[in-house]
Amino acid sequence: MIKGKFAILAIESSCDETAAAVVLEGREVLSNVISSQIEIHKAYGGVVPEIASRHHLNNVNWVCQQALDQASETLAAMDAGETSVISDAALKEGGSGGGLSMDDIDAIAVTYGPGLVGALLIGLATAKAYALAMGKPLIGVHHIHGHICANFIEHKDLKPPFMALVISGGHTNIVEVSDYNEYQVLGGTRDDAAGEAYDKVARVLGLGYPGGPLIDKIAKSGNPEAVEFKRVFLEKDSFDFSFSGIKTGVLNYVNSEKQAGREINVPDVAAGFQQAVLDVIVTKTVTAAIQMNKDKIVMAGGVAANSRLREMLQAECDKHGISLYHPSPILCTDNAAMIGCAAYYNYKAGKISDLTLDAIPNLPL
After folding, report:
1. How far are the Cα atoms of 37, 205, 230, 264, 277 from residue 251, in angstroms, in the given order?
2. 26 and 142 co-located in one domain
3. DSSP-assigned states of every residue in 156-213
């Protein structure tokens, strides 16, 4: 422990970010190191699993050491400012950088699903090796549980119950959160996740990768009413999503405009697409909160950083007296701090894994 606080080294490698973090008591982040592969995968217009796995293999041990070093520097800075007193074991002689070791860590946490199986296996093998070699408990974490828990790091006073909107490249879910480890998925995507639809539409519009931030940015200069795309709400009272139709609608519109020799106003198309997607997401999320008597909604996942989504959801929450919580952008993306937070609550609930823990690419919540 570090000054009596339970310390977790967390590892996240579910997709194309190799990440490690040191987290105390679930909510105090000493380090959060992320090695991104975005520039590598841009050339392919999306994540190539084999390439992602190879880079995880090259990066994971270095990233873990960086997390320990950064945590040591954080502790040194806190001690110098007399904002926190740390144990003698936390900082070795020689000052900051390299002062914190595995001896100071109480447990190893790792994402074991869902995600790309090869990428997951790299993080999982590393975590198992550390746990076995150092005699530390191993805590497996569900990736989506981690995303939701990112809000506990950002908002120290946040407690369940609440409604969660998990929205990323691979997931679009409305989740009822009853307690720190109790979840019920009320709705999910039946085809493309929202982030996946953003990436595909960005490719059609020639914007590049990743599509979410690019569409969010260019849509600001567009007219969301200039090009109308169909809103798909599915069956009455359903909290599920379907975005493949709107993706096809954008493709058909672009092709028809090109065939007619007309110039395509990319900002208008981006704005119209985004508005259609977010109208559905915001409506369903707020409706779910009202029906389940929740007065809090939390956002989670990469697309939770979307400025227009935050703006629309905040406005709708204000109408109904619902409090809205969302993490800062660095905690919206895949990161290990959120995994450390989720692992802490798993540990408190007695959810400890053994060395037979395996990667589950389609792990349900």
Report:
1. 28, 9, 13, 12, 15
2. yes
3. TT--S-EEEEEESSS-EEEEEEEETTEEEEEEEBSSS-HHHHHHHHHHHTT--SSHHH
**Residue 59: how many CB atoms within 10 A of its CB?**
20
- pLDDT, one tens digit per residue, over 25-62 is 999 999 999 988 777 887 777 788 888 888 889 999 99
Antiparallel, parallel or unpaired: β 138-142 and 162-167: unpaired
- Rounded to 5 degrees, φ, ψ at 3 are 50, 45
| Structural domain for 28, as ranges | 7-152+332-348
Determine what percent of the chain is predicted with pLDDT higher than 90. Answer: 77
Strand partners, 296: 323
Structure tokens at 72: 């040591």
Q: What pTM did the predictor assign?
A: 0.89
Q: What whole-number distance in Å separates Cα of residue 18 and Cα of residue 180?
A: 25
**Do residues 197 and 190 lie in contact, with contact meaning Cβ atoms separated by under 8 Å?**
no
Q: Residue 365: how many CB atoms within 10 A of its CB?
A: 17
Q: Please, how many CA atoms are within 13 Å of residue 333, restricted to the half-sphere of its CB? A: 18
Is residue 49 a part of any domain in this protein? yes
Contacts of 117 (CB under 8 A, 6+ apart): 49, 359, 361
CA angle 164, 168, 170 (to 5 degrees): 115
* H/E element, 29: strand 28-36
Helix, strand counts (H, E) of the chain: 11, 10
CATH number where 68 lies: 3.30.420.40
Please name which of 248, 243, 229 lies closest in space to residue 172, comparing C-alpha atoms. 243
